[in-house]
Amino acid sequence: MTSGRNYIIAAIVTSTLLITYLHYSTNPNIHALHDIYREFYYIPILIGALVFGLRGAVLTYLFVFVLYLPYILMNWTGIFITEANRFLHILLQGLFAFFAGFLIDRDRKHREQLEKERYLAGIGQVATTIVHDLKNSLITILGFAKRIQKGKGETESAVQTIIDSAQNMQRVVHDVLDFAKPIQLNIKENEDIRSIIKQACNSCKTKAEEEGINLLLDLPANPVNIAIDGFHVERAIVNLINNAIEASIKGQKVTVNMMSEKNHLIIKIKDHGTGMDKETLKNIFIPFYTKKSKGTGLGMSIVKKVIEGHQGKISIESQIGKGTDVTIELPYKLK
Ligand code: ADP
Ligand code: MG
């Protein structure tokens, strides 16, 4: 980001210098040409305003002013209307810089405010959802533990239900913790990614069965070793499979497959469910953005954090009514 800003500053300075050079190197009597060059100054001023707001616009304007003023003084015609025209132009450029910068700053602040409000509203909503989620799982655990204590029902299935509920609680707690603090990746060399993906699918099996979703896994026959934080990548894949299951209806397929490329591997999670509209696709990685009544909206932002922490990429293709393909690219070796 900082280097991006440096490039923009370099572009503003270079373009201003170039336009000024045109002024100084062109015959001052060809007024039409100088009028055109003068208009060019609006470009760096506008870029300054768009990228750096009021401060950028005014500083660029002052830079233009300092460079252009000697040209006016050196080529002073003494003709009132010509000089008045030049100064009026300089004044208008100053006003333009000020208002463009001011409006852009105001718009930015407004958007930041909206984001903050949504963030706070999100936290409130998520807190309710989390407590609700945890409470439901706790009730289940307590209920089944008491049944086991009294020797009622089948113990094995009761224990499984307790484990599932505790895992659900664990997922919620992990999601919130992962979101709340920067993720500390614990990268291990030579992890077989296949076992991590397998483990992720196993964690989602019960949910898939309950929803009547056919969860299919397609992995290469030989080990695929990679430098990775298995724990976090597994949870990222679990998040994606859960989303795919939640978007699907009974009888549909969710497929998870993996392919090896030369320098990276590709993991695809594909569903044939609801798909997403443009708005959802645009906001999907924003924390707390959810369209589910019981969602936290944290899943995808955590997934992105984890994948980018591995210098990987995540992309989504989705069509309403047709389904969604999520593609993850992970480099074998971290730089
Ligand atoms: P949550 O699942 O808690 O809502 P996520 O960050 O995991 O939060 O997802 C954000 C939103 O993105 C979901 O509410 C849903 O609308 C949309 N979404 C994510 N994955 C899919 C998918 N596979 N199909 C359709 N919509 C999806
Ligand atoms: Mg989710």
Helix content: 55-70%
Q: In terms of structural class, how would the helical and strand content be classed?
A: alpha+beta
Proportion of strand residues: 5-15%
Major sheet, described briefly?
A: 5 strands, mixed
CA-to-CA gap between the ends? 19 Å
Query: What is the oligomeric state here?
Result: single chain
The number of distinct structural domains comes to 2
Q: Tally the beta strands.
A: 7
Number of helices: 9
Spatial order of the strands forming the largest sheet:
2-4-5-7-6
Mean pLDDT: 91
The ligands bound in this entry are: adenosine-5'-diphosphate, magnesium ion
User: N-to-C SSE series?
Assistant: HHHHHEHEEHEEHHEE
Commentary on this structure:
Strands 2-4-5-7-6 form a five-stranded mixed beta sheet, covered by helices on one side. Strands 1-3 form a two-stranded antiparallel sheet. 65% of the residues lie in helices and 14% in strands. With 335 residues, it is α+β, with helices and mostly antiparallel strands. The protein starts with a helix and ends with a strand. Strand 4 and strand 5 (264-271) form a beta hairpin. The mean pLDDT is 91. The protein is elongated, with a radius of gyration of 30 Å. It has two domains: 1-181; 188-331, Histidine kinase-like ATPase, C-terminal domain (Heat Shock Protein 90), CATH 3.30.565. The protein has helices at residues 2-25, 31-40, 42-74, 80-149, 155-180, 193-211, 230-247, 278-283, 299-309, and strands at 188-192, 214-218, 225-228, 253-260, 264-271, 313-319, 323-331. The structure holds adenosine-5'-diphosphate and magnesium ion.
